[in-house]
């Protein structure tokens, strides 16, 4: 078990995800875990939300805004190559307009102000919903070190709506970079919720992409650019959909394909030249 929560007076055991197993070997050893909510119950929720948040960035990362990120995607050689390969009477300029439309629909707009808002709201909710959220400090230290040394890709399974909320909440609590999170496009259609999620780091993917080569090109280049630039850790769920039985689902081929693309796109500095 990764945690034991109390929900409306009933005890609910939450199974450990693969991420929890990787970050916290030996889940039965309670000495390795710290209750994150213990300090929250003794302190001010507002002070926590507005605490100093200064995560150590990936050492190879360049300063990059969301606008810079989107510009790099649109100007990429890969996207231009795909546009030329697609057999269509459309001029190249029209493909650029289409790509921009896809990117505007998809892209995140991570803002610290909304992260703080979510931290405040989730603290209120989690303290009422759970008796405790136990985190493995050794695993968190390993993750924090990893985010400083290389781009990080988080691939937990998706057993409840709490998954992505809890991960971002824990990372904010311990000054670890907030990930950008792959979410389903229906959430973007919910005006208030969609905008809050977008500004909290969510980017939105269509559920049915099919053979749309331009969409695949924009999606893969967008994620690869985030990874290459070290903009933020990337989090997406290999099952694609939330499990409604608390059991793992069969991984989606599309998400595995994107994951492989991300791993293959990571570039390192030339040590010989730099030395």
Can you give the helix content as a percent range? 40-55%
Reading side by side through the largest sheet, how are the strands ordered?
5-8-6-7
Number of strands: 8
Total individual domains: 1
Overall mean pLDDT: 77
- Helix vs. strand class: alpha/beta
Calculate Rg over CA atoms: 20 Å
User: Which ranges are low-confidence, i.e. pLDDT below 50, for 5 or more consecutive residues?
Assistant: 1-28, 267-275
Strand residue percentage = 5-15%
- The biggest beta sheet, please? 4 strands, parallel
Tag the structure with descriptive keywords:
elongated; disordered N terminus; Phospholipid/glycerol acyltransferase domain-containing protein; alpha/beta; 275 residues; two-stranded antiparallel sheet; disordered C terminus; glycerol-3-phosphate O-acyltransferase activity; GPAT/DHAPAT
């Amino acid at each position: 078990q990764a945690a034991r929560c109390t929900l409306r007076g009933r005890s609910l055991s939450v199974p450990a995800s693969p991420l929890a197993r990787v970050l916290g070997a030996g889940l039965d050893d309670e000495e390795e875990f710290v209750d994150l909510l213990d300090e929250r119950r003794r302190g001010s929720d507002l002070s926590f939300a507005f605490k100093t948040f200064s995560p150590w960035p990936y050492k190879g990362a360049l300063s990059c805004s969301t606008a810079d990120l989107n510009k790099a995607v649109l100007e990429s050689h890969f996207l231009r190559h795909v546009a030329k390969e697609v057999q269509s009477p459309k001029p190249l300029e029209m493909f650029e307009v289409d790509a921009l439309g896809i990117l505007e629909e998809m892209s995140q707009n991570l803002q610290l102000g909304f992260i703080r808002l979510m931290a405040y709201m989730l603290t209120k909710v989690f303290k009422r919903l759970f008796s405790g959220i136990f985190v493995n400090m050794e695993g968190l230290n390993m993750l924090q070190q990893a985010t400083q040394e290389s781009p990080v890709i988080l691939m937990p399974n998706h057993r409840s709506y709490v998954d992505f909320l809890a991960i971002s909440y824990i990372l904010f609590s311990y000054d670890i970079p907030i990930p950008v999170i792959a979410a389903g496009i229906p959430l973007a259609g919910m005006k208030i919720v969609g905008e809050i999620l977008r500004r909290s780091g969510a980017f939105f993917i269509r559920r049915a992409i099919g053979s749309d080569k331009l969409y695949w090109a924009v999606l893969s280049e967008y994620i690869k650019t985030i990874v290459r630039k070290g903009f933020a850790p990337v989090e997406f769920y290999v099952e694609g959909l939330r499990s409604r039985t608390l059991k793992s689902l069969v991984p989606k081929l599309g998400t595995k394909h994107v994951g492989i693309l991300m791993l293959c796109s990571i570039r390192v500095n030339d040590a010989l030249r730099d030395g």
